[in-house]
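Worked problem 6 (solution included).
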Amino acid sequence: MYDMKHLRRLAQLDHLAPESFAAFKVPDDVAFKDGAIPRKYKELMAIVAAQLTQCPYCLKVHARLARRHGATEEEIGEAVMVAVAMAAGAAITHGAHVLSEPKS
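Solution. The predicted structure is:
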């Protein structure tokens, strides 16, 4: 199902809906520019987000870009573990919703 070759089809979307496709690219282009947060760190944040949204395409793309912008394997590994911690934290705190109110 997931194959990086499928991303080549995005050019079709650009052709079929150029105005909408261009609008999609604007926040992405702006958000990932170097600014107060350097690009490398933005790419590491994207790895965490991609894990949490479970997008294999985003994982592959942003891991490649993180490396290109100077991220080490250790930094990428730590980013992965931040995502693990965030997912575990969300799971345990949501668990509180299923517990009954204490009887007084």
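Discussion: The chain has a mean pLDDT of 94.
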